[in-house]
Design goal:
Blueprint (H helix, E strand, L loop, with lengths): L11 H40 L5 E3 L1 H6 L11 H22 L5 H5 L1 H11 L14 E4 L5 H11 L5 H5 L29 H20 L11 E6 H5 L1 H12 L5 E7 L16 H7 L3 E6 L3 H13 L6 E6 L24 H7 L12 H31 L1 H12 L17 E3 H15 L3 E5 L3 H4 L18 E3 L4 H13 L4 E7 L3 H13 L5 E5 L17 H6 L5 E3 L4 H13 L5 E5 L3 E3 L6 H10 L2 E4 L7 E5 L4 H11 L3 E5 L3 H5 L3 H7 L8 E4 L13 E3 L10 H7 L4 H9 L1
């Protein structure tokens, strides 16, 4: 106590005794503190019980006060929905059994959730599955796809029973994981866990932006919700946490995340790999959290309606405590229920569910009748919305045209809007991109941009369109924070929405954080634009951690992703125009940090036209063709200088986009790169060399990591120089 100094004669034994006394004192204080906290919690609990309780629901303190308590059941036809739930279980059992593969646990464990959502609560129209104001449902746990297919079939979407029976079969509309654009009613391609959570965040953000852009004081045409069903696996993935933080910060209160909390993962029970309180984590990130019995349809309904009608400015997490594989007693509640282990218990499971033994894929006439009547109710709501839409359309012709153009994917004549660049000017392609982006932003009101905390470096900020935030949902510049993986999947979600042309940016080397989402965008044919700057070893002083020597080539390996690495400002303008006119899939724009000269060896028009072809002759030979230099991006000007030293027989080919070049006719490709000249063709790019040997027998590149030094010195150290290139061409 106090500042007493221990005498030198103090022994170790005495020190231990003193430590023990202090420890016991501290423990006694902790125990007293715990008693006080527990007493307070008990008092709070008593207060909540005095207010009332939710049948079948356990909710957090914040939620218990705000939720309206009623003794009346909220499920209009509980018997019909319970019957539908068991028949949905049966469809999953039969389809997975026939395929001898699939994931049975979620479809059986979440059947009551599906019944409430598709049979009562969600607003949708199976006849018009692309209705702009429908509630969006995303199955983030995409492995449980038979859950979604069963409910889409029963709800009346164009998914006949034959397709349900052909689950996982070649060319069926019921693939192993849901695929956007392939199956009616599927809102997102899911399967890589966690991405669906971020897709839902993107859809919710898109809805907020659409509502802020289109709604008026007199007419509200966008007021729907986004519902995501996820599991433990989704929430363990880091991408989900990134997206959840973004959604909470931006107060996306139109988002409802239903968490299938069954305590099971594939290898072991979830307790072996997680021990955090998920609800507290979400609350700390600005979400409202409800906890319910996921098999109690009244509790599901009550929680869902509360989330939908709440005005607290928070997205909602509904923790649904479920039994995985419910309905097959032999596996229910175990790790075995996750996959197809229940197939061998198919007969006993169907019997316990009350399904006829002689009829597989059984949906009763009563269930079909129920959904037929429900469909009429949904269409009536749809038609009432249609009347509001007609009034809005008549009162707001400019907004109506804007919406029609966005839905149709109309792109204006961007070529006529592009800035002109002076030949010889030294301009980094990221800076050229900044100039190109401004007329795009002004002429395309549904074009959005964003960055993972790098607007100042990526140069992709759009002037005069505002910043998207909880204070301004009409803004079109998105600030994702340092969350590249979530940014990629949120962008996918916004693209799934069907109105927006979406772009986002970071350093090229950090595109690897986004790669899983980029792959899904390419698979889903989403016309997203990636703006990835700091393209090569030219980054310089930041060193090898930031010098993406392998990244461009690795992105070229992703099918249906156009990778465009322009060599000057004119090619950059053409790359942006190409990206926005491409509707078949995403496009990556790879831009430089360092200045590059605007080349005058061809006209701006010829360069732009050639860029859209993917590759073209920039410098034509003036003598008999003796050699070709194939160059791309920052190394293009180097190739031009080398050709001057080599002489008139040297041709320079610019290939900003290998993928676009490969789509051209055989005749065009031969005119640019004659096959007979392959042995005399030298390719140069400041990255790994392997892919270029398809076009050239000699390649100058970088097959090792870079180093920290000024950019020109790094190029020198790696042997990427004009003299070295001349030497290689002549070798």
């Amino acid at each position: 106590e106090g500042d007493a100094i221990l005498p030198a004669s103090f022994t170790c034994h005495q020190l231990l005794t003193l430590s023990e006394i202090m420890l016991r004192f501290m423990r006694s204080q902790i125990i007293m503190a715990r008693i006080i906290v527990i007493s307070a919690l008990l008092a709070v609990s008593d207060a909540f019980q005095a207010v009332g309780s939710l049948p079948g629901a356990r909710v957090s303190a914040r939620s218990a006060v705000s939720m309206q308590v009623t003794a009346e059941p909220l499920v209009a036809q509980p018997a019909a929905l319970a019957k539908a739930a068991d028949e949905a279980r049966g469809l999953a059992i039969d389809s997975i059994s026939k395929a001898e593969s699939g994931h049975m646990g979620l479809p059986l464990g979440c059947a009551e959730i599906g019944a409430v959502l598709f049979g009562q609560e969600m607003s949708y129209n199976p006849v018009d599955p692309e209705w702009v104001n429908r509630d969006r449902f995303v199955l983030s746990a995409g492995h449980g796809s038979m859950f979604l297919y069963s409910w889409l079939h029963m709800a009346g979407y164009d998914l006949p029973m034959k397709e349900v029976e052909n689950f996982r079969a070649k060319d069926s509309k019921t693939p192993g994981h849901p695929e956007f654009g392939w199956t009616p009613g599927v809102e997102a391609t899911t399967g890589p866990l966690g991405q669906g959570v971020a897709n839902g965040v993107g859809l919710a953000a898109a809805a907020k932006l659409a509502g802020a852009t289109l709604n008026t004081a007199e007419h509200s045409i966008i007021d729907h919700h986004v519902v995501v069903l996820c599991g433990d696996g989704c929430l363990q993935e880091g991408i989900a946490n990134e997206a959840v933080a973004f959604a909470g910060h931006e107060q996306l209160d139109n988002l409802i995340l239903m968490y299938d909390s069954n305590g099971v993962t594939l290898d072991k029970m979830a307790e072996h790999t997680q021990s955090e309180d998920v609800g507290m984590r979400f609350e700390a990130q600005g979400w409202e959290v409800l906890e319910i019995d996921g098999h109690d349809m009244d509790a599901i309904t009550k929680a869902y309606q509360h989330a939908k009608n709440s005005d607290n400015g928070k997205p909602t997490l509904i923790i649904c405590k479920t039994i995985i594989g419910k309905g097959i007693d032999e596996i229910a509640g175990t790790c075995a229920a996750h996959g197809e282990a229940g197939v061998k218990y198919k007969d006993s499971g169907r019997e316990s569910l009350g399904l006829p033994a002689d009829k597989n894929w059984y949906v009763s006439p009563e269930t079909y009748d129920f959904f037929t009547e429900h469909k009429k109710e949904l269409i009536a709501k749809y038609e009432a919305w249609g009347e509001t839409f007609k009034a809005w359309e008549a009162a707001n012709p400019d907004k109506a045209k804007m919406l029609a153009d966005a839905k149709a994917g109309v792109v204006p004549d961007l070529d006529s809007m592009m800035p002109e660049f002076k030949v010889g000017a030294q301009i980094a392609t990221r800076n050229a991109g900044a100039d190109v982006l401004q007329p795009i932003a002004q002429s395309m009101p549904f074009y959005v941009s964003g960055s993972a905390d790098l607007h100042g470096s990526n140069k992709n900020y759009m002037k005069g369109v505002g910043d998207f935030s909880k204070n301004n949902y009409a803004g079109r510049n998105f600030y994702y924070g340092i969350r590249e993986h979530a940014m990629g999947a949120i962008m996918n979600g916004m693209a799934y929405y069907g109105l927006f042309r979406v772009s986002g940016s970071t350093f090229l080397v950090f595109s690897d954080y986004m790669r899983a989402a980029v792959r899904v965008a390419a698979l889903s044919h989403l016309p997203i634009n990636y703006i990835w700057t700091h393209d090569s070893i030219g980054v310089g002083e930041d060193g090898p951690t930031h010098q993406p020597v392998e990244t461009v080539s690795s992105m070229r390996l992703i099918p249906n992703l156009d990778v465009m690495r322009p060599g000057d400002a004119d090619e950059t303008a053409a790359a942006y125009v190409h990206a926005l006119n491409r509707k078949e899939g995403p496009t990556a724009l790879i831009l430089s940090r360092q200045n590059l000269p605007v080349l005058g060896e061809a006209s701006a028009e010829d360069k732009k036209a050639g860029t859209k072809m993917g590759g073209y002759v920039l410098v034509k030979e003036t003598e008999e063709l003796s050699s070709i230099i194939l160059a791309v991006g920052s190394e293009l000007s180097m190739a031009v200088e080398a050709a001057k030293e080599i002489g008139g027989g040297c041709r320079v080919v610019s290939m900003p986009c290998v993928e676009a070049f490969e789509r051209q006719s055989a005749e065009y490709k031969e005119s640019v790169l004659p096959k007979a000249m392959k042995s005399k063709t030298t390719a140069v790019e400041a990255g790994v060399t392997a892919l270029w040997y398809k076009f050239a027998d000699k390649v100058m590149g970088v097959d090792s990591f870079g180093l920290s030094a000024p950019g020109d010195q790094v190029y020198e150290a790696k042997g990427i120089t004009v003299p070295k290139l001349v030497e290689l061409v002549k070798a």
